[in-house]
C-alpha cells in the first residue's frame, strides 16, 4: 500500500468524467487499498480516484452515519438518486463543505438531505443503501468527483467569486499541482 499525492484544482483528471471500472481484479484491490491509505493520511471523510490522479469511477469514504451503513467503504461504478435540494441560502454554521483537492478552504453549499446509492464493492458485490444528512452530503460530493465536478463548481454566485479569488491567490487552476498527505502540512489542520 502506498500513500499517493492528492491532485489539486486544475489537474485535468479532476475536471473530466471518470471511466467505468471494467475488471474486479487484483489491480483494483491494490488501487482501493492505496485510496484508503491516502484518505486516512489526509484525514479525509472521502476520496475519489481522480484525487490520486486515476480517472476511474471509484470512491472511498470514512464517516459514521445514522443510516446503518458501515462507516468505512468503497463504491465502484456508483449511481446516485438525489433528493430535492432546498432553494434556501446555505448555512454558514451547518452546511460548510471542503475538499482535499481544494486544500485549506471551505464554503457553504446546499445539498440534498437524502440520496440513494447503488454500486459495487471491491469484490463486485452489489451495494444499495440510502444516506441522509452529512453522509448524504459526502456521497454527493464524492460522486460529483466521478463526473469531473468539484464542490466549488456548485457554489452560489457569492461564494463562487470568493473561491475563484482563493484559487487564483494559491496559484491553482493549472495542471500538475499536488500535495502529499503525511508530508506536507495538513491543509485543514487535522
Ligand atoms: Zn472532494
Automatic annotation (TrEMBL):
Q: What is this protein for, i.e. what is its function?
A: Removes the formyl group from the N-terminal Met of newly synthesized proteins. Requires at least a dipeptide for an efficient rate of reaction. N-terminal L-methionine is a prerequisite for activity but the enzyme has broad specificity at other positions.
Query: What name does UniProt use for this protein?
Result: Peptide deformylase
For binding Fe cation, which residues are annotated in this chain's numbering? 99, 141, 145
Q: Which residues form the active site?
A: 142
What's the EC number here? 3.5.1.88
Q: Which GO terms describe its molecular function?
A: metal ion binding; peptide deformylase activity
Taxon lineage: Bacteria, Bacillati, Actinomycetota, Actinomycetes, Micrococcales
Report the source organism: Arthrobacter psychrochitiniphilus
InterPro entries recorded: Peptide_deformylase (IPR023635), Peptide_deformylase_sf (IPR036821)
Q: Which PANTHER family match?
A: PEPTIDE DEFORMYLASE, PEPTIDE DEFORMYLASE, MITOCHONDRIAL
Q: Does the keyword Metal-binding apply?
A: yes
Task: Name the Pfam families on file.
Answer: Pep_deformylase (PF01327)
Q: Which domain of life is it from?
A: Bacteria
Amino acid at each position: 500500500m502506498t500513500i499517493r499525492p492528492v491532485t489539486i484544482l486544475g489537474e485535468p483528471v479532476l475536471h473530466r468524467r471518470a471511466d467505468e471500472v471494467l475488471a474486479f481484479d487484483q489491480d483494483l484491490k491494490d488501487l482501493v487499498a492505496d485510496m484508503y491509505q491516502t484518505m486516512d493520511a489526509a484525514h479525509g471523510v472521502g476520496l475519489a480516484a481522480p484525487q490520486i490522479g486515476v480517472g476511474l469511477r471509484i470512491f472511498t469514504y470514512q464517516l459514521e452515519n445514522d443510516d446503518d451503513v458501515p462507516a468505512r467503504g468503497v463504491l465502484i461504478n456508483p449511481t446516485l438518486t438525489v433528493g430535492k435540494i432546498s432553494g434556501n441560502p446555505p448555512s454558514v454554521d451547518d452546511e460548510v463543505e471542503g475538499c482535499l483537492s481544494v486544500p485549506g478552504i471551505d464554503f457553504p453549499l446546499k445539498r440534498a438531505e437524502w440520496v440513494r446509492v447503488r454500486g459495487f464493492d471491491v469484490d463486485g458485490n452489489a451495494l444499495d443503501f440510502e444516506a441522509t444528512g452529512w453522509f448524504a452530503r459526502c456521497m454527493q460530493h464524492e460522486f460529483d468527483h466521478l463526473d469531473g465536478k468539484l464542490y466549488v463548481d456548485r457554489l452560489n454566485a457569492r461564494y463562487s467569486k470568493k473561491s475563484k479569488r482563493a484559487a487564483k491567490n494559491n496559484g491553482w487552476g493549472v495542471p500538475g499541482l499536488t500535495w502529499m498527505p503525511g508530508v506536507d502540512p495538513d491543509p485543514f489542520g487535522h
